[in-house]
Design brief:
Structural class: alpha+beta
Number of domains: 1
Distance between the termini: 19 Å
CATH architecture: Roll
Shape: elongated
CATH topology: Pnp Oxidase, Chain A
Strand content: 25-35%
Largest sheet: 9 strands, antiparallel
Length: about 200
């Protein structure tokens, strides 16, 4: 077993990631849960954008989106992705790669209901990633949705979550003279044991 201590200590990478995220919540000015999500399109061309991590579960990292968006369609076509969380204030980052599955049903309903009313109405009205004639047209659609659903809009079928189940998690921390500390956890699948390796900077 690779020797680890301090911020890298622990036997569960999900717990380490949660601990780092909690620490970032104390120091990052905006959105400590912001992460870059990378997917590939039908031609294999990479695509990356910022999304918000909403949960670190015992077996994966959960975020929510419009299933009809570019990322939603790309994940449906190729259910593999990578994310990176970078915290400048802590000088740390976490990189994750693995397979992706949908998060729907009661779990997605509960999260949707926890969002602000305006965010819920916007999620229903938006045809994310599709061409938009004007902002005025978008606001008109939001007004129609508001008139239809009022203050308790249901989660639309086109909106829900994804869980990234890792086969690789890398923890990185800044080091003096750019001699950074890096530990990568790898496994073949959820039923397999993690192998931990220290990497060169």
């Amino acid at each position: 077993m690779t020797e680890r201590d301090g911020i890298f200590s622990g036997d569960d990478p999900f717990e380490i990631a949660q601990r780092w995220l909690d620490e970032a919540g104390e120091s990052e000015v905006n959105d400590p849960n912001a992460m870059a999500l990378s997917t590939v399109d039908a031609d294999g061309l990479p695509n990356v954008r910022m999304v918000l991590l909403k949960a670190i579960e015992p077996d994966g990292f959960v975020f929510y989106t419009n299933y009809g968006s570019a990322k939603g369609q790309e994940l449906e076509a190729n259910a593999r992705a990578a994310i990176v969380l970078h915290w400048k204030s802590l000088r740390r980052q976490v990189r994750v790669r693995g397979s992706v599955t949908r998060v729907g049903g009661a779990q997605a309903d509960e999260y949707f209901a926890s969002r602000s009313l305006k965010s819920r109405l916007g999620a229903i009205a938006s045809r994310q990633s599709q061409p938009l004639e004007s902002r005025t047209a978008l606001m008109a659609d939001v007004a129609k949705v508001t008139a239809k659903y009022g203050i308790n809009p249901p989660r639309p079928a086109h909106w829900g979550g994804f869980k990234l189940s890792p086969v690789e998690i890398e923890f990185w921390a800044d080091g003096a003279f750019r001699l950074h500390d890096r530990f990568v956890w790898r496994r073949e699948g959820a039923e397999n044991t993690w192998e931990i390796t220290r990497l060169h900077p």
